[in-house]
Design a protein that fits this description.
6 helices; 2 domains; three-stranded antiparallel sheet; alpha+beta; 369 residues; five-stranded mixed sheet; Immunoglobulin-like
């Protein structure tokens, strides 16, 4: 048999054997086995596959939970917003009634107050029926409490008003009316301090940036001056017919805004550049341009920036300011980050009987570095 014939008899699929001394494949040599994976390598591959599966599953679950959380938060604040809006409307109508008191208002006072009370009680029940997300349980208690304060304030205001109208001494009756009005004003403070601001912080901590999810703001008394005894006296006098119209001029104006302690005066033209700080103090100068001494004048600051869910707010009150007097008030507590552009809105008053309010507000662009 020739050499080539011998080679043809070799099986086609025969495994390669180890080479002999001459470098050729020895027919009688040991067969070489393919390399096998070690047990450790197989374990590592399985472990990596499990980790990848867990990560993918976790991300999917987290995405679903995030969507559910956002949807739950949106539904909650929509429900709160509707309650607050309806309650604020009651306050708006009531404030308007007291700001324009006349004989017609006096004749319908008892019936209107009963309507306000019934509406407020119904709104309170709706507030109690709202089921908050677990993350807002404690904040929701203050939301309900603020609605309870409003209902309580209206319930006490009705007899106080009716008694004050019948009483001879306006000062005595006004003191009780102002007390009940102050309770109503307290509802706004409680809502802002213990619900609005804490809820904003929760949303920030939860990383919720959806622009459709907003904590609703609230304002029951349109004019906080209604909670002062002096204003209550004026209301009673007009209800009794002693002063059907406002006699004389009432009005305050915003004259200047400065940064403290630098003394830098802000301008509404262009951008004001200054240094960032954890606590920014603002000095607001008010002028009484009317003919009466004004008391308990509200001064409000609002600092907002693009990309932030809601503005920072600080309120203060000037106890008294005489006609023609220029008087400063300092407010602090606003924070500013370096490298950010902010819009500062300053508002003073309005006071009871004020008609011209165009000079009560100023807006200032500030760049903090």
């Amino acid at each position: 048999m020739s050499f080539f014939e011998e080679e043809e008899e070799q099986p086609y699929a025969e495994e390669v054997t180890e080479e002999g001394p001459a470098g050729r494949a020895g027919r009688g040599g040991r067969k070489r086995k393919p390399p096998a994976q070690s047990p450790l390598a197989r374990v590592l591959i399985i472990l990596i596959a499990v980790i990848v599966l867990v990560l993918v599953t976790s991300l999917g679950i987290k995405s679903c939970l995030d969507k559910r959380k956002v949807s739950e938060f949106r539904e909650y604040f929509d429900a709160v917003g509707q309650v607050v809006s309806d309650s604020d409307e009651v306050g708006r109508q009531m404030s308007e009634m007291f700001q324009k008191p006349d004989e017609q208002v006096r004749a319908s006072m008892e019936g209107r107050m009963a309507e306000f009370q019934a509406a407020s009680d119904e709104i309170l029940e709706r507030a109690k029926d709202i089921n908050p997300p677990d993350r807002f349980k404690s904040e929701n208690e203050w939301f309900v409490a603020s609605m309870q304060i409003r209902s309580r304030g209206i319930r006490g205001l009705q007899p106080a008003l009716l008694n004050a109208i019948e009483a001879r001494d306006n000062q005595v009756g006004a003191a009780q009316v102002a007390h009940e009005m102050l309770i109503l004003l307290t509802s706004d403070v409680a809502y802002d301090e213990f619900f609005y601001q804490p809820a904003q912080r929760v949303l920030k901590d939860e990383g919720v940036t959806d622009p459709e999810i907003k904590v609703p703001q609230a304002k029951f008394l349109q004019d906080p001056a209604l909670a002062s005894q002096q204003t209550a006296v004026t209301v009673l006098e007009r209800l009794k017919g002693g002063a059907a119209e406002v006699t004389g001029l009432h009005g305050v104006a915003l004259t200047s805004v400065k940064l403290v302690p630098s003394g830098q005066e802000l301008t509404m033209d262009g951008v004001n550049e200054t240094s960032a700080s954890d606590s920014v103090t603002i000095e607001v100068v008010i002028e009484n341009q009317g003919e009466f001494t004004e008391t308990d004048v509200l001064v409000s600051l609002s600092l907002s920036a693009p990309g932030r869910p809601a503005p920072q707010k600080v309120d203060g009150r000037m106890p008294t300011i005489a006609p023609g007097e220029l008087k400063p008030i300092e407010l602090s507590g606003l924070g500013a980050e370096a490298g950010s552009m902010y819009l500062l809105r300053v508002e003073v008053g309005p006071v009871m009987g004020e008609v011209f309010v165009e000079n009560n507000v100023g807006e200032y662009q500030i760049s903090f570095s």
